[in-house]
TrEMBL record, chain A:
CDD domains named among the record's database cross-references: TM_PBP1_LivH_like
Protein's name according to its UniProt entry: Branched-chain amino acid ABC transporter permease
Superkingdom, taxonomy of origin: Bacteria
UniProt keyword annotation of Transmembrane helix present: yes
Keywords: Amino-acid transport, Cell inner membrane, Cell membrane, Membrane, Transmembrane, Transmembrane helix, Transport
PANTHER family: BRANCHED-CHAIN AMINO ACID TRANSPORT SYSTEM PERMEASE PROTEIN LIVH (PTHR11795), HIGH-AFFINITY BRANCHED-CHAIN AMINO ACID TRANSPORT SYSTEM PERMEASE PROTEIN LIVH (PTHR11795:SF371)
Transmembrane segments: 20-39, 46-65, 71-94, 110-129, 178-195, 227-246, 302-321
Family: Belongs to the binding-protein-dependent transport system permease family. LivHM subfamily.
InterPro entries found in the cross-reference section: ABC_transp_permease, BCAA_transport_permease
Membrane topology, from the record: Multi-pass membrane protein
Keyword Transmembrane: yes
Chief place of localization: membrane
Subcellular location: Cell membrane
UniProtKB/TrEMBL annotation, chain B:
Organism: Blastococcus goldschmidtiae
Keywords from the UniProt entry: Amino-acid transport, Signal, Transport
Any Pfam family hit: Peripla_BP_6
Keyword Lipid metabolism found: no
Source organism phylogeny: Bacteria, Bacillati, Actinomycetota, Actinomycetes, Geodermatophilales
Signal peptide annotation: 1-22
Name listed for the protein in its UniProt record: Branched-chain amino acid ABC transporter substrate-binding protein
Alphabetical list of InterPro entries matching this protein: Leu-bd, Leu_Ile_Val-bd, Peripla_BP_I
PANTHER family: AMINO ACID BINDING PROTEIN, LEU/ILE/VAL-BINDING ABC TRANSPORTER SUBUNIT
PROSITE patterns given in the database record: PROKAR_LIPOPROTEIN
Domain Leucine-binding protein: 43-370
Automatic annotation (TrEMBL), chain C:
Topological relation to the membrane, as annotated: Multi-pass membrane protein
UniProt subcellular location: Cell membrane
Species whose genome carries this gene: Blastococcus goldschmidtiae
Protein name as it appears in the record: Branched-chain amino acid ABC transporter permease
Pfam families: BPD_transp_2
Ranges that cross the membrane: 42-60, 72-94, 101-120, 126-146, 153-171, 228-246, 277-294, 306-339
Coiled-coil intervals, chain numbering: none
Keywords: Cell membrane, Membrane, Transmembrane, Transmembrane helix
PANTHER family referenced in this protein's UniProt entry, alphabetically: HIGH-AFFINITY BRANCHED-CHAIN AMINO ACID TRANSPORT PROTEIN BRAE, HIGH-AFFINITY BRANCHED-CHAIN AMINO ACID TRANSPORT SYSTEM PERMEASE
């Protein structure tokens, strides 16, 4: 207990950083759930592909550490764009391949879950076998920096050096910590505004509330669904870069665990609720850190899941309730 | 009629798919085993371990080591081609049962390098013993494995009980540290090793924590390390988590010496940790690779990557068997005898096995990470 | 992926609900009618042949069906234990409509009971261990179900997922339960060596009896997996019988009512919570039984045998087969457990191929390989109700 109190600031800041990543990935689950009431199981792979896009951009540019700030910012922005484009693209591909037919047929929701699970296996394995795929085209040597050790960790060479910014309660908050927490909050606000104010956003809300009425009112449901997947994917891409800045490595199967955690965060905050996703992420990140400090790291997931169960028993639809636009009865 | 076609089509498609991969599987074997009919026709050694799944990275290292040995052997002995059978267990004890049964049923297979992990060894071991199929594991380090009375069991590396005390000795005698923080990854390998180190260090242990494999955020553990004021951290586990842990430690301002064991002796550790890997001490029951530069180059040429954790051990294990085959031991029984009596120079150590199948005369070396390379530091003398 | 002439007649709106009934369901109408019309004696003879064939599978070593790259008996046992699990999960998901993503937890409790009380902490006899495993798993099902079943719909999915992980992590981090090292020396079923059965050997299309390759009838050893398969198959037949009786009883109807509309069922006097708990406990019972058999076949268990991934595969088995139809989920379990082993010819691509196979099955057989009869009958009605109410799981 005294350990928790002595290191409270450190555990809180690092918990928030982790929570910000959870929250951004959780947005993808929450948006799709809000609109379609489907658990998009393959969203973790959307994130994973984004993380590789970010890595590949930095490998291609090969900026030396300690370069001038404008160059660093430029590279990071390019990596961000690449990750967002890759994740958005994979999310659209998923919608096309794993969901569109089932949505059109109005198939049982569980079937869509299985379809997504199949897609998730295939995507993860594809990334784990990328050296072999390159081999088909005889490109394994040309593409070696991108495809070698496909089953292993791939490192993101962060062009930005970690530096302390200020010290609070014995912990030096770093520039990376600040960037991650602030970007997550900013993106959250931007997404919230997007859903509230734009035409596409109101389309998303309309379909989430009542898909058939929305269709009668002239909302193009198919387009709204695509937009939802795209937005969720882009957010996952951003989360991928932030994750890499903090944790530095990715891997073909890194998505699975993160996906489970992010989905937990989404449920914790109230699935279908955009603000709830980030709140759920933060709470989950903090709970994992505080829990580890209290009872040991081996119990961190147990603490997180127990917290989830307790919250759901008292608030059966999550902390903020499930709503994408309005509370559902 | 329309319905019957509709229901029939998927079945037909599935049957076709099965036939297709049935035939492709069937085609593979003759082409691998056959070719020129030499003096040792239809002889194969197996690789048993993960090639898919979460542990595939370690398994591929081992398979590559075996494959290289087999390739070199076949080039030198064109009249005695030995095939390599792969048993991809994904590291899963359940799949291992069927594969081990398959292996003992395949009369061509007279020796197996593996099983790669302790868990699958527990289920596959008794089956190999029943099939009298000799095995040499290049990576399973649970000490209890050799105590099951399986005649066929061998391992070509020191188990946790030999390596743990060496790591503890190094920490106490060389680093002269009296405050050590011990972390493990809750795997059979990491937890077993950490337990031994913890016991040997006794009062010098100022704190412990257990992480999970696959975990990426270690902030709570790092806060605990800093809080304990330890000047050395021992981590029992594999390189994937070790890389992340030391990177986050250094970033979090903890500069305690990072001490790890052979599961981390891998380029992947430096890949994951980057500059933070610098100064890490890695203990390994393997000789420094002076004479094995040849191996290093051949490996890199064959697979495009540097040899990694357990590749060299796998290469040694396969060579023990291949030398036996070259000497005419082409049955399981005679090969087992050959292995039991083997005494020769491998690239990782002097190889000979005691009656339980443990490799003898293990010398544990300390390696250090310098300028992004894992270089030999010194031999660790234990009493 | 090409969809072919997926659905020309599908137009948005209500029309589609009627259109996809016959197209998506596995229409067994023709075949089923023909079989029903057969005289009773022929029917029984057919069933008898099928049963004998199932028992004989590991001896027949049939080409194409047998797995060339791994032991077929072991695969058959794995398939049988998946079938058993799928039957259990089918009660929870298919009959009562509860989405359980932590089903592997019960499988683990069953396996751990046998291993801990049979080897690590006590050396009870196998005959005592199996009932104990089943009882303890059922109790754990009730203990977990009592608080969680008040949570509805997809929230239940994540709560059960959490419990499944908690069970695994507890085993992983508790020395008393063997921790990461796992538990060795799990007792095997007692052997009664009666006689030897030869296997067949195939040369092209001709079968030869291979007298060198034999299975000792009911010798539960380490290498020959066939006796374990026979044991599991027998258990499956017993469970199938019990399943059928439950389904046709008042309990089955109460489950169906709860699944279709919980509030309406409650209003009509069905104590839905108690029936949901009963479904959960029955599911746990069967899952624990399967886990217990798994542990005693394997002789060794560790926490890695009970990963979350397994829960997902179990779920896939039930949904791909057709939740709510016991024969459908059997087929689904066969697909999920057998294909990855049969696909070994694809080497490291086999999981990719398996993922694509799941994707294709879900997209082109959305009702499952064998959908429950009710699903086809009530298709059109369901469609409309479904669009009106949300948050419920449907078979």
């Amino acid at each position: 207990m005294s350990f928790l109190i002595d290191n409270f600031v450190e555990l809180t800041v690092t918990g928030l950083v982790l929570g910000a990543v959870y929250g951004l990935v959780a947005l993808g689950y929450t948006l799709v759930y809000g609109v379609l009431q489907l658990i998009n199981f393959a969203h973790s792979e959307v994130w994973m592909f984004g993380s590789f896009a970010a890595v590949w951009v930095t490998v291609a540019i090969g900026l030396a550490p300690g370069s001038a700030l404008p160059a660093v910012v430029g590279v990071l922005l390019l990596a961000l764009l690449a990750a967002m484009a890759m994740s958005g693209g994979i999310a659209l591909l998923l919608e096309r391949v794993a969901y569109r037919r089932l949505i059109r047929l109005d198939a049982p929701r569980l079937v869509a879950l299985i379809s997504a699970i199949g897609a998730s296996f295939a995507l993860a394995e594809l990334m784990g076998l990328r050296d072999r795929v390159a081999g088909w085209f005889g490109l394994e040597d040309t593409l070696a920096p991108y495809v070698s050790s496909a089953r292993d960790n791939t490192r993101f060479r962060n062009p930005l050096d970690t530096e302390g910014v200020f010290t609070v309660g014995g912990y030096t908050v770093s520039n990376v910590d600040l960037i991650i927490i602030i970007s997550a909050l900013l993106m959250m606000v931007a997404l919230d505004q997007f859903i509230r104010r734009t035409r596409t956003g109101s389309g998303i809300r309309a379909v989430a509330q009542d898909s058939e009425a929305a269709a009668l009112m002239g909302v193009n449901r198919a387009r709204v669904i695509r937009a939802t997947f795209l937005v969720g994917g882009v957010m996952a891409g951003a989360a991928a870069l932030l994750y890499l800045m903090r944790f530095g490595v990715t891997r073909w199967n890194a998505g699975f665990l993160l996906g489970v955690k992010a989905f937990t965060a989404a449920v914790l905050g109230g699935i279908g609720n955009v603000r709830g996703a980030l709140l759920g992420g933060f709470i989950l990140g903090l709970a994992e850190n505080y829990g580890s400090a209290l009872v040991g790291s081996q119990w961190r997931d147990v603490v997180a899941f127990l917290l989830l169960v307790v919250i759901l028993l008292f608030r059966p639809t999550g902390l903020l309730g499930e709503s994408l636009g309005r509370a559902r009865a | 009629m329309r319905f019957s076609v509709k229901t029939g089509a998927p079945l037909l498609a599935m049957a076709l798919a099965l036939t297709a991969c049935g035939t492709s599987g069937g085609d593979d074997e003759p082409s691998a085993n056959g070719g020129e009919a030499g003096s040792c026709e239809d002889i194969a050694i197996g690789y048993f371990g993960a090639l898919t799944g979460a542990a595939a990275n370690l398994g591929i290292n081992i398979r590559n080591g075996v494959e290289l040995a087999v390739q070199q052997f076949n080039e030198e002995n064109p009249d005695c081609e030995v095939a390599l059978e792969e048993y991809d267990s994904a590291g899963d004890p359940n799949q291992a049962t069927g594969l081990a049964t398959q292996a003992i049923g395949d009369e061509d297979v007279i020796g197996v390098v593996g099983p790669a992990f302790s868990g699958e060894s527990d289920t596959a071991g008794p089956i190999f013993a029943e099939g009298e199929l000799p095995t040499i594991s290049a990576s399973a380090t649970n000490p209890a494995l050799s105590e099951n009375g399986w005649d066929t069991f061998h391992r070509i590396l020191g188990n946790d009980a030999s390596q743990g005390p060496a790591a503890a000795t190094y920490i106490q005698d060389v680093l002269q540290s009296d405050s050590v923080f011990v972390v493990d990854d809750a795997s059979a390998y990491g937890a077993g090793l950490a337990e031994i180190v913890e016991e040997d260090l006794g009062d010098a242990v100022v704190g412990t924590d257990t992480i999970q494999t696959g975990q990426t955020d270690f902030s709570a553990t790092i806060a605990a390390i800093r809080d304990s004021g330890a000047d050395a951290v021992f981590f029992g586990g594999y390189y994937a988590e070790a890389g992340l842990l030391v990177e986050q430690m250094r970033r979090g301002g903890v500069d305690a010496t990072f001490v790890v064991a052979d599961g981390v002796k891998d380029p992947g550790f430096i890949e994951a940790a980057g500059d933070a890997a610098e100064g890490t001490i890695i203990t390994c029951p393997c000789l420094p690779p002076e004479e094995s530069d040849e191996f290093f180059q051949a490996y890199e040429e064959a697979f495009g990557t540097a040899p990694a954790t357990y590749s060299a051990e796998a290469y040694d294990a396969a060579n023990v068997m291949l030398q036996g085959i070259a000497e005419g031991n082409t049955t399981r029984e005679s090969l087992l005898e050959w292995i039991n009596e083997y005494d020769g120079e491998g690239i990782t150590k002097e190889v000979s096995f005691d009656e339980t199948g443990e490799v003898q005369n293990i010398s544990v070396w300390a390696y250090a990470v310098k300028d992004g390379e894992i270089v030999a530091d010194q031999e660790i003398e234990t009493d | 992926m090409t969809q072919g002439k997926a659905s020309p007649e599908t137009s948005p709106g209500v029309a589609r609900s009627r259109a996809w009934g016959p197209r998506l369901g596995w229409d067994r109408g023709a075949l089923a009618r023909r079989v029903t019309r057969l005289p009773r004696s022929v029917k029984w003879a057919l069933i008898g042949v099928l049963v004998v064939l199932l028992y004989a599978l590991p001896l027949l070593e049939l080409p194409i069906i047998s797995t060339p790259d791994t032991d077929f008996g072991a695969v058959l046992f794995t398939v049988a234990s998946y079938v058993l699990v799928a039957l259990g999960l089918n009660i929870v998901l298919g009959y009562a409509g509860l989405l359980d993503l932590g089903y592997v937890g019960f499988y683990a409790v069953g396996a751990y009971t046998v291993a801990v009380l049979g080897s690590l902490q006590a050396q009870l006899s196998w005959w005592l261990l199996i009932p104990l495993a089943v009882i303890i798993t059922t109790i754990s099902g009730i203990l977990l179900g009592a608080p969680t079943l008040r949570v509805r719909g997809d929230y239940l999915a994540i709560v059960t997922l959490g419990f499944g992980e908690i069970i695994r992590l507890t085993a992983l981090n508790t020395e008393w339960l063997g921790a990461a090292k796992g538990i060795t020396g799990v007792p095997r079923p007692p052997s009664v060596d009666l006689f030897e059965l030869p296997h067949l050997e195939w040369e092209g299309a001709t079968a030869l009896i291979d007298l060198d390759d034999t299975t000792t009838f009911l010798s539960f050893g380490v290498a020959d997996q066939a006796p374990y398969y026979w044991l599991a198959l027998t258990v499956i037949f017993v469970v199938l019988g019990a399943d059928r009786m439950m389904r046709l009883s008042r309990i089955g109807r109460a489950w169906e009512a709860t699944r279709e509309d919980e509030d309406a069922a409650e209003l009509m006097g069905v104590p839905t919570f108690r029936f949901k708990l009963l479904a959960f406990a029955t599911g746990a019972f069967i899952g624990g039984l399967s886990g217990a058999l798994f542990a005693s076949r394997q002789g060794f268990i560790n926490p890695e045998s009970f990963l979350l991934l397994l829960s997902i595969l179990f779920l896939a088995a039930v949904v791909v087969g057709g939740a709510g139809n016991r024969y459908g989920v059997i087929l689904g379990a066969i697909v999920v457990a057998y294909l990855p082993e049969r696909f070994r010819g694809f080497e490291e691509w086999r999981l990719l191929v398996f993922g694509l196979a799941l994707l294709l099955l879900a997209n082109f057989r959305p009702q499952g390989l064998l959908p429950p009869r009710r699903a086809r009958r009530a298709q059109a009605v369901d469609e409309q109700i479904d669009s009106m109410e949300e948050g419920k799981v449907r078979a």
